[in-house]
Amino acid sequence: MNPFLQRLSDACNATGSLVSIGLDPDPERMPVEIIDFNKGIIDATKDLVCTYKPNLAFYEALGMPGLEALRKTIDYIREVAPEVIILGDAKRGDIASTNAAYAKALFDVWGFDAITVNAFAGGESLEPFFKYEDKGVFVWCRSSNPGSQEFQDLRVSADGQEPRFYEWMAERSREWNTHGNVCLVVGATYPDQLSVVRERCPGMPVLIPAIGAQGGDLENSVKFGMDSEYPNIIINSSRSVLYASSDKDDFAQAARSVAQNLRDNINRILKLEGMKWP
Amino acid sequence: MNPFLQRLSDACNATGSLVSIGLDPDPERMPVEIIDFNKGIIDATKDLVCTYKPNLAFYEALGMPGLEALRKTIDYIREVAPEVIILGDAKRGDIASTNAAYAKALFDVWGFDAITVNAFAGGESLEPFFKYEDKGVFVWCRSSNPGSQEFQDLRVSADGQEPRFYEWMAERSREWNTHGNVCLVVGATYPDQLSVVRERCPGMPVLIPAIGAQGGDLENSVKFGMDSEYPNIIINSSRSVLYASSDKDDFAQAARSVAQNLRDNINRILKLEGMKWP
């Protein structure tokens, strides 16, 4: 088994959880300073998640202090929850020589276990990411936003057929997966498309964002995203967990409740579907 | 005229140059420290360029010191060459709420005049960038890398026709351009595709990277990229200018020679094509 997939399944098995929490700081909604906020969320939820997923945009928007907070957040997770996967949500993608620099930034400098990437420039451009064999590379295949269909649902002429663009991207991602570390991102707002991706990509983990504030469909995301032998899904929620309460004495506990409910709901759905996990 | 397009044409007219230099630091090839290197390049070329284009990947790969060097580089350009456009090459793209954070990071925190973006999630996702009306938003339409055809040359079913994906992206970009600040990126390695994009998008500036180390075709890039009334192209070279000499006493002057040649060659081609500029 690829070492990243092993680490990911170890993290899921350790907490019996497929939950990822998106650590996306919004100064207008946090009742305390960013690093104290993140530490509070991490302390309250670290036994309930397999993954923390900081989206770099929200740290970059705060300038150097934001990036310093990201550094401290990563270090803190390593200290108190060393088994949990840290997924840098960066959607990076450029030509290969530039992607080599992004890979260095994300894997060597920040030290993420996994990242999200943008495959617009094709598989050749992504090789510098893929060749970090012990790191997960999540290809953004179907985005969760309302305008995602503009390009992603277009029918393309490929391989003598007419798949949708996102479907063809899933197919290509499977072909690129020679090191075993290619994974996918498909928004929970599009469970039918998730089903298509799962069929095309057995054995590949799928990150499913947009549960909560974005209104993704949990039940169908789990049903249509789960693999045959092992779930192979990560269900991410950000704002609905982080900002469950705006009270400085209560936000962490409120986040814990939402995360716990999410974990338990996912596991209940899996059980009803006959998946023997956790 | 849109205020960014006005600023860009002022910058081109002031130096009689359509040249952009990509400030992409590579510690293994720079004979002096990064900020001294960038200052040397800027001092030696600022009267020869319309644009400096730092690619964020190369700064992020150096960690916090790299980002501090980017800060100082931007500040230095503002100080010594206030008319020159600073284009943050970041290829950012995510869902709209995340893009709002990236827009804040790139336009408000870093202070770029323009940026490159990735349109995979569609025009709706890019609105937070577009609404900065006085900033240029360069949609990555046709990448310069050898694997770009994997997705970008696919034929898509759109509008009752079968355009290539990059062509349809150009068409959509024109539709998105309600504020007048949408521009495009098309690699110099694909002049035929550049011609198609120019036909679809009259009046929209096109950034043309990959002249030099990547082997782009200058003559055809200028011919096929130029607009009818005004060039509306920015020709970028990075490595072949920056690393023209590895001698610490000579690298800046060597860069100046390459930049000057590039400017003059572009203008010679334009003149032969009958463009009354500069």
Low-confidence stretches of chain A: none
- The assigned structural class of chain A equals alpha/beta
The helix tally of chain A amounts to: 12
> Which fold name is given in CATH as the topology of chain A?
TIM Barrel
Question: What is the CA-CA span between the terminal residues of chain A?
Answer: 19 Å
Integer count of domains of chain A: 1
Portion in helices of chain A: 40-55%
Greatest chain-chain contact: A-B, 55 and 55 residues
Name the CATH homologous superfamily of chain A: Aldolase class I
Task: Please report the first level of CATH classification, the CATH class of chain A.
Answer: Alpha Beta
Assembly type: homodimer
| SSE pattern of chain A, N- to C-terminal | HEHEHHEHEHEHHEHEHEHH
Mean pLDDT level of chain A: 97
Largest sheet of chain A: 8 strands, parallel, barrel
**Beta-strand proportion of chain A:** 5-15%
Architecture of chain A, CATH level 2? Alpha-Beta Barrel
- Rg of chain A, alpha carbons: 18 Å
